[in-house]
Amino acid sequence: MTEEPSRPARRSLGVPGQSRAEEWQESVYGAAQDGHEWPEPAAEVPGPAVEPAEPSDGPPAVPLRAGLEAILLLVDEPATERHLAAVLERPVAEVAATLRELAAEYTAQGRGFDLRFVAGGWRFYTRADCAPAVERYVLDGQQARLTQAALETLAVVAYRQPVSRSRVSAVRGVNCDGVMRTLVQRGLVEETGSEPETGAILYRTTNYFLERMGLRGLEELPELAPFLPEVDDVEAESLEGTMIAEAVAAARADGREVQ
């Protein structure tokens, strides 16, 4: 029985023009002897095809309550229920109900923040009971409050809007151009067209004004009647002023010096 020669190690000779089969048969040990031919290497049997994982339709759904809290922590102005529902892909009614549940829950737990509906949307606010601590942290001894003139002008705009600067000045009795510019720069007042008769620019309060005042809308502004003087007092002051003016005019007509 003829002993079959051992199989040589596979090695590519890299001879130009030589096929891979010839390279296998002629290795560093030479060609096969005694008429034996080296068997060709068995062809690789392909394994079972692996199905690629189907791509997911999108990120996993976020729980509604957690999603609302996460978004409201980022907003810099009140977010509307419709916008929140579109972002979270939930019905508007469900989002509205959940927001009210969260607001009631925070209040019941006495958290340091509120979830309030102001200026047509929802936003987190610090609780009023925590105002002293918040003021000490934010202001740190510095206060940037509106002047009395700015507050008066802002009140006139809020109750008479849309209103021109000349009408505001007439109500206050002084020129208010500089104060109006300050209110516009602070984002509390904005332009809203012009007066048809005179072409004067009209002004109104902004959503930022509602936000800072904690109001849902202008209909929540307090009534002015309790803060107005009685009609008799106004007439008395007006009569007294008229009498003083007449006395001063008479004294000047007589050539007397008025102290």
Number of alpha- plus pi-helical segments: 10
Order of helices and strands: HHHHEEHHEHHEEHH
Mean pLDDT: 76
Radius of gyration: 43 Å
Largest sheet: spatial strand order = 3-5-4
Give the total of beta strands: 5
Structural class assignment? mainly alpha
Taking pLDDT < 50 over at least 5 consecutive residues as the criterion, the unreliable ranges are 23-34
- Portion of residues in beta strands equals 5-15%
Question: What gross morphology would you assign?
Answer: elongated
Beginning-to-end CA distance, first to last residue: 150 Å
Let me know the largest β-sheet. Answer: 3 strands, antiparallel
Oligomer: single chain
Helix content: 40-55%
Short description:
The chain has helices at residues 20-25, 64-72, 81-88, 92-109, 131-139, 148-160, 165-172, 177-185, 207-213, 231-253; strands at residues 113-118, 121-126, 163-164, 189-194, 201-205. It is mostly helical.
Explain what this protein looks like in three dimensions.
This protein has 259 residues and is mostly helical. Helix content is 42%, strand content 10%. It is built from ten helices and five strands. The protein has helices spanning 20-25, 64-72, 81-88, 92-109, 131-139, 148-160, 165-172, 177-185, 207-213, 231-253, and strands at 113-118, 121-126, 163-164, 189-194, 201-205. The strands form two sheets. A three-stranded antiparallel sheet has the order 3-5-4. A hairpin with a 2-residue loop joins strand 1 (113-118) and strand 2. Helix 6 crosses helix 7 and helix 6 (148-160) packs across helix 8. The longest helix has 23 residues, at 231-253. The protein is elongated. It starts with 19 loop residues before the first helix and ends in a 6-residue tail after the last helix. The model is unreliable at 23-34 (pLDDT under 50).
